[in-house]
Amino acid sequence: MKIGNTIYLDHQATTPIDPHVLAEMVPYFSDSFGNPHSSEHCIGWEAARAVEHAAERIAQLISADADEIIFTSGATESNNIALLGLVRRAAGGERRRILLSAIEHKSVLAVSRILGRQYGFSVEQIPVDRDGFIELHALRDMLDEDVLAVSVIAVNNEIGTIQDVRQIAGLAESYGAVFHCDAAQAPVAAFPDGIFPRGAILSLSAHKMYGPKGIGVVAIPREIQEKIEPLIYGGGQQNGLRSGTVPVPLCVGMGLAAQLLTTDDAEERRVALRRHRDAFLDGLKSLSWPISVNGPIGRARHPGNLNVRFAGFAAQEILSALQPRIAASTGSACTSGFPEPSHVLRAIGLDSYEAESSIRFSLGFGTTDQDVDNALGMIDEALKRLSTLGQVSSA
After folding, report:
1. Is 395 part of any domain?
2. Gap between the Cα atoms of 289 and 167, Å rounded
3. HEC sequence for 322-345
4. Which of 217, 236, 293, 296 is the most buried (most CB within 10 A)?
5. Does the pLDDT at position 24 exceed 60?
């Protein structure tokens, strides 16, 4: 898709809101503006029904129940509630270890440092292989009766790896550990019906799935809810797990975005997305510049994700040369302001030079054949220009 004159290839940073989603949200900013927690009049009841309907739609997406859906400001807050909430309630218990993958989102890694520094928990990283898959034998060796929780991202936001979360969750739960999954990228990657096991805590973010920014979900199974200490206190809304007035228009938008991703049409769009991604990769391979792909190939990868190393070039130089014609990134939007190499790329075995020559292109449902062709031409032109100017790494 194009935004003005820019080809947008950064959909894993954020997606455009679906027009149907926006249209369904609009009345709840004006006509149906009631507080869903006002329980004594029909205006509040109407708003409450809209929120409940949204929760039901999201629950259907992830095979949960509506009363297990807790609305948050986004997946970052959801990850915080899941891990900090578990640890704060379990403080003083015998389970003092947290296991998480080496390629988690920065919000999980940042929380993990707090768990160790402020609460004295031992936080250990589960290694991954060259494609970013959890090394299951290592996880089995690390698991014991003193593990409180295992946290593994469902679909990696940088290299697109789709984990077998059912198997990982089964291992965690066999030792009595709670399984948490940052699933923000999963709804677009694949229809997750039946993928996520009962008993798992899931984090979602609407703006990663063609919904509005500022809203997310932490899905907490009812049998686990008593194990979570709230981070926000107030009127006791949402089963007391996240107090505060929920934003009805945003909830409605996320609900419809979730429903739209469960349709046959959505699956057809995923197939088209994978086709465009593969055509883009084939086109890059046909250029005169050697490339390598970071992460897995095929269906075990997010259908819109392509993370590529351009040997001899610095990613930042390429991205600068492509402005303002192509929007892509070196990785997570949450870490792009930091100069150090991606922790995800380092975890799969890349050295600093390889990581710093890597670009993430993330295509979306709106990407067209013309976008792919035009982007390839622009990239070829930019690499030729950089080569002529001598802006090629000696590494």
Report:
1. no
2. 39
3. HCCCEECECCCCCCCCCCCCCHHH
4. 217
5. yes
